[in-house]
Amino acid sequence: MTESPLQTPDEGGAARSPSDLPVAFSDPSYLAAVVDLLGAIAYGELSAFERLSEDAKMAPALSDKTELARMATTEFGHFEGLRLRLSELGADPFAAMEPFVAPFDAFHVRTAPADWLEGLVKAYVGDGLAADFYREIAAFLDADTRALIVESLSDAGQSRFVVDRVRAAIAAEPRLGGRLALWGRRLMGEALSQAQRVAAERDALTALLAGGVDRPGMDLAAISRLFSRLTENHSRRMETLGLAA
Amino acid sequence: MTESPLQTPDEGGAARSPSDLPVAFSDPSYLAAVVDLLGAIAYGELSAFERLSEDAKMAPALSDKTELARMATTEFGHFEGLRLRLSELGADPFAAMEPFVAPFDAFHVRTAPADWLEGLVKAYVGDGLAADFYREIAAFLDADTRALIVESLSDAGQSRFVVDRVRAAIAAEPRLGGRLALWGRRLMGEALSQAQRVAAERDALTALLAGGVDRPGMDLAAISRLFSRLTENHSRRMETLGLAA
């Protein structure tokens, strides 16, 4: 892997002594992998905050704008929890996020929504896909880290809002369905392409999936099944929105 | 005054029965004025959220971006409290905010920061001025409303961050001081110009300042002293930033 953020202890001095951490963290490669993963999720949450507050500007009404701003602040709250945990692990949270800035920003540049509805579909489909993926990885982690990740990915009621708005818009103008269905497929393609980029660059993360001497991992068949599950869940979300996957 | 948001009760049914409200609210013109004022502050907070999350994009480092995003979510939290209170008063919060959308948006369009430092100065000087002004008005209100307003205007630690960053930037490049001092004066001018527009359009609000049969108000001399205080505080904030007022 590339440079480790672990060498720069957090200035807040919040780092726990190693004895406070679950035994899994005595393996430096496990610690590095968890720092990498939390860094990725944290930057994902921060950039979700940015994207949602940006999309809020396109809201057709003040109440819609408020709903998106509320989603954005929820994502920021998750970010704060992840940042704190990175400090507890003795990592510099910003150094941990840095490797993921380029791929996440590239994803957002390539999938800038053209209007309010594209923004809603992106929030729903993109966050859903990311949440599925991180939850799958979390299954391989210690209980504390897993709980934090699952908590960070919880839906703060935004799904119902998005589903209601998108279905109502398609009901009012059925032609929208075709354009938004294409948009959903493009989002999936761009997300997979950036995920591959991250996998190729972050050895610690991919080693986590592959497992270790005392840790179960995934073989190629298992990874292939993982991708099938991600694709199925994506299709289900598209159907929920009233869109062809 | 123009159309009242009071005729549209909040769908959430959160409106208190009139007997739960302080006696001052039995005067319909007082109620209308408070709804107007809370609507103005609420939209101010929502647009501060938007502006800070927009300015966060210009942050030179991830830690700075995080600091601005944190300020934005704090403003959104204040907004939520005001929205709830408007519902409790039997008003539609979005209708109460609507009259203030145009003047606040005009202020932000005319004072779009050209860079990160201008954004910081605007956050500090603009929020400080608004907070001073609303606190002055709050002195004429019932205790509950006053407490909510003062709470909504509390500084969530952002001032120290802004002061540190701006002073450090000027120390590193003294010429910046001249440009930022001009910027601070322009912010004050644009704020006063939009405030006058609001005062001219919102009769209920200006009636509040003028007082009523059983409520103290301000005469012209008092209003003139109010503006002196606002100007003095503005000058003090500029000095704190290391800028000539």
Cα separation of the termini of chain A: 36 Å
Q: How large, in whole angstroms, is the Cα Rg of chain A?
A: 19 Å
Helix content of chain A: over 70%
Mean pLDDT of chain A: 87
Overall 3D shape of chain A: globular
What does the main sheet of chain A amount to? none
Description:
The structure is a homodimer of 245-residue chains. Chain A has 245 residues and is mostly helical. In chain A, 72% of the residues lie in helices and 0% in strands. Chain A is built from nine helices and no strands. Mean pLDDT of chain A is 87; it is low at 7-14. Chain A binds chain B through residues 43, 46, 49-50, 53-54, 56-57, 61-63, 65-66, 69-70, 72-73, 76-77, 79-80, 83, 94, 97-98, 101, and chain B through 43, 46, 49-50, 53-54, 56-57, 61-63, 65-66, 69-70, 72-73, 76-77, 79-80, 83, 94, 97-98, 101.
Key terms for this structure?
homodimer, 245 residues, 72% helix, 0% strand
